[in-house]
Amino acid sequence: MLSSRSLLKHAVPVLRALPARRSITNSCIALSDKLFVHRDTVDNNASVKFEFNEYNLERAKEILAKYPHQYKKGAIMPLLDLGQRQLGWTSLPVMNAVAKMVQVPPMRVYEVATFYTMYNREPVGKYFLQLCTTTPCQLCGSTEILKTIESHLGIQVGETTKDGKFTLVEVECAGACVNAPVLAVNDDYYEDLTPETTIKVLESFKANKPLKAGPQSGRHTCEPKGGLTTLTSEPTGPGFNIRSDL
């Protein structure tokens, strides 16, 4: 009878199945064109003064009057928007002025301004171009519109033209999918765009004579492109199709 030592000596090695190799892949990092960490610059530091002008100060008071005294902080967002409209962008001094007005620590205002991308933390051009590139707009040609804008103005997404007139960014979603593709210029929407009509819109702003906002295809608001398909006749009056004895 073999000893345990002999058994171990003559044992056939057992091959264990190695676990399947798994490759780990990383998607590319999507870099944002927005600034979320403050860096002092010549025109954006705590020593730069900002005050609401006389007109906007009155508007600020009207905004604050809508909130109970103990809830002044609820006015942070509209006041930041007001400051951005006056200066053109949301600088550190703008945020500090709003914090002082609503009597909260400045950090509370910084938190709001860095969370919402509607607040531009860096200077932007006179005409702020926000092109929607979400799925509905992309299916309707927003990629071509983006290439057209970049080529015509000579800038990339996140850049401003040398004359300071145009800044281009991508956004999701403009909320006007039925009129895709959509380009917002400041507060106005230009819809149903093609590369040709996009150039016309840009040229009109270059000449400081903006085209009328809305669909650039000729249709009225968001009616069907092929024309109305329902309610095309005079509406019927009361009692239509109702039995006479009722």
UniProtKB/TrEMBL annotation:
<dbReference type="InterPro" id="IPR041921">
    <property type="entry name" value="NuoE_N"/>
</dbReference>
<feature type="binding site">
    <location>
        <position position="177"/>
    </location>
    <ligand>
        <name>[2Fe-2S] cluster</name>
    </ligand>
</feature>
<keyword id="KW-0001">2Fe-2S</keyword>
<keyword id="KW-0408">Iron</keyword>
<dbReference type="InterPro" id="IPR036249">
    <property type="entry name" value="Thioredoxin-like_sf"/>
</dbReference>
<dbReference type="GO" id="GO:0046872">
    <property type="term" value="F:metal ion binding"/>
</dbReference>
<comment type="similarity">
    <text>Belongs to the complex I 24 kDa subunit family.</text>
</comment>
<keyword id="KW-0520">NAD</keyword>
<dbReference type="GO" id="GO:0051537">
    <property type="term" value="F:2 iron, 2 sulfur cluster binding"/>
</dbReference>
<dbReference type="GO" id="GO:0008137">
    <property type="term" value="F:NADH dehydrogenase (ubiquinone) activity"/>
</dbReference>
<dbReference type="InterPro" id="IPR042128">
    <property type="entry name" value="NuoE_dom"/>
</dbReference>
<dbReference type="GO" id="GO:1902494">
    <property type="term" value="C:catalytic complex"/>
</dbReference>
<dbReference type="InterPro" id="IPR002023">
    <property type="entry name" value="NuoE-like"/>
</dbReference>
<feature type="region of interest" description="Disordered">
    <location>
        <begin position="210"/>
        <end position="246"/>
    </location>
</feature>
<feature type="binding site">
    <location>
        <position position="132"/>
    </location>
    <ligand>
        <name>[2Fe-2S] cluster</name>
    </ligand>
</feature>
<keyword id="KW-0479">Metal-binding</keyword>
<feature type="binding site">
    <location>
        <position position="173"/>
    </location>
    <ligand>
        <name>[2Fe-2S] cluster</name>
    </ligand>
</feature>
<protein>
    <recommendedName>
        <fullName>NADH dehydrogenase [ubiquinone] flavoprotein 2, mitochondrial</fullName>
    </recommendedName>
</protein>
<dbReference type="GO" id="GO:0005743">
    <property type="term" value="C:mitochondrial inner membrane"/>
</dbReference>
<keyword id="KW-0411">Iron-sulfur</keyword>
<keyword id="KW-1278">Translocase</keyword>
<feature type="binding site">
    <location>
        <position position="137"/>
    </location>
    <ligand>
        <name>[2Fe-2S] cluster</name>
    </ligand>
</feature>
<dbReference type="GO" id="GO:0016491">
    <property type="term" value="F:oxidoreductase activity"/>
</dbReference>
<dbReference type="Pfam" id="PF01257">
    <property type="entry name" value="2Fe-2S_thioredx"/>
</dbReference>
<dbReference type="GO" id="GO:0006120">
    <property type="term" value="P:mitochondrial electron transport, NADH to ubiquinone"/>
</dbReference>
<dbReference type="GO" id="GO:0098796">
    <property type="term" value="C:membrane protein complex"/>
</dbReference>
